[in-house]
Amino acid sequence: MDLGISGKWAIVCASSKGLGRGCAEALAAEGVNLVITARTQSTLEETADYIRGKWPVEVKAIAGDITSVEGRAEVLEACPEPDILVNNAGGPPPGDFHDWTLDDWQKALNANMLTPIELIKATVDGMRARKFGRIINITSSAVKAPIDILGLSNGARAGLTGFVAGIARKTVIDNVTINALLPGPFDTDRLRGNFEAVAKSSGRSIEEIRKERAAGNPAGRFGTAEEFGAACAFICSDKAGYITGQNILLDGGAFPGTL
User: Fold this and answer.
1) DSSP 98-166
2) How far apart are CA 217 and CA 225, in angstroms?
3) How far is it, in rounded angstroms, from Cα 127 to Cα 162?
4) What InterPro entries has UniProt attached to this entry (predicted)?
5) Are 86 and 18 in contact (CB under 8 A)?
6) Quick one: how far is CA 189 from the chain centroid?
7) Global pTM value
8) Whole-angstrom distance, CA of residue 130 vs CA of residue 152
9) Looking at residue 191, what is its pLDDT?
10) Which domains does the chain show, CATH number per domain?
11) Span 139-156, average pLDDT
């Protein structure tokens, strides 16, 4: 299927590895030019070189902190009129809510709620004027089924979800959609970090926990960054203009509800 987005420009945040990289690669495979971001220059450049070598697209690699005013400004200078925006940021650390300070909450809200809102605000009007835009917020399955040790993430990502619900129905008239992809357990550094935290608190081995969690998923495995990226590319396509304000769960069937 031709997704109809070849030649367009996308900003993909936190895209040097993991789910962000999966999205960047899937978009590049469809001919989309990229501005990719991450904090670590070396990892980001490796990703950029890989994408340039595999697909005939332009890739701009901007190393920096997307959660800062300066980091966002640098990215937007490199791509002032994106057609696609993929908001993504590493989730805050797991833990017990008794231990979290106000500063912990402010960092979580800035990274996982306020930064995506600022990027949407900076780009959505131009998308509406050009009559095409696709905004994807990578959040978490915890938006639908909160995870007790991920309270910082639960709160911040739910806040972003509520904000998007209020504007996605206003922008679609101009062919600008705003949706969220909610990953469940994907084989990423984030998942491995969660396993380490559980292992530390329980005294069990990381491998034991990993095998148990994989077996407990209806799919019997964890998701891959490649399949996550493929879902992202479709929602960013010109075929998906009738999908907006949705929270699309990718979790191997782990969520037990009907809605």
Assistant:
1) GG--HHHHHHHHIIIIIHHHHHHHHHHHHHHHHT-EEEEEE--GGGTS--GGGHHHHHHHHHHHHHHHH
2) 17
3) 21
4) NAD(P)-bd_dom_sf (IPR036291), SDR (IPR050259), SDR_fam (IPR002347)
5) no
6) 14
7) 0.93
8) 36
9) 84
10) 9-186+225-249 (3.40.50.720), 187-222 (no CATH)
11) 91
Tokens of 60: 């701009």
Neighbouring C-beta atoms of residue 216, cutoff 10 Å: 10
State the CB neighbour count (10 A cutoff) for residue 169: 12
CB-based contact 58:80 (threshold 8 Å) = no
> Sign of torsion, CA 10 1 249 215?
negative
- Joined together, the tokens standing for residue 4 give 């109809």
Beta bridge partners of 137: 87, 180
Cα dihedral across residues 114, 116, 119, 124: positive or negative: negative
